[in-house]
Amino acid sequence: MKKYSHDSTRKRNTSPLKEVFEELLEAYRIKDKFSEKTVIQEWSQLMGKTVASRTQSLSVRQKILYVKISSGPLKKEIMMNKTKVLTLIAEKYGKGVINDLVIL
After folding, report:
1. pTM to 2 decimal places
2. Closest to 75 in 3D by CA, of 104, 47, 97
3. What 3-state DSSP class applies to 25?
4. Which of 45, 53, 69, 94 is the most buried (most CB within 10 A)?
5. pLDDT tens per residue across span 31-74
6. DSSP result, 76-103
């Protein structure tokens, strides 16, 4: 008696884990929430150590990223480059994940 048969019921076509995960997020309609959390988690990588060290808090509500910055000059610089920051986020995490940026 053979331990394994060639007529296995296991699926032959496989998909990369990333694709399956993306499909799962879309199926449960939580892709946007996951992307928002990813933006918050990766803020320091996206903006650099200087900005990250002066960031007191981050939150997302209704596709608006709220960033509390402790440095006045840095706050002003980010406000002036708001569209650049939003473009960076859109390029890395997809368009529509974050629609606006509010600096507090």
Report:
1. 0.75
2. 104
3. helix
4. 69
5. 888 888 999 999 999 999 999 999 999 999 999 999 999 999 99
6. HHHHHTHHHHHHHHHHHH-TTS--EEEE
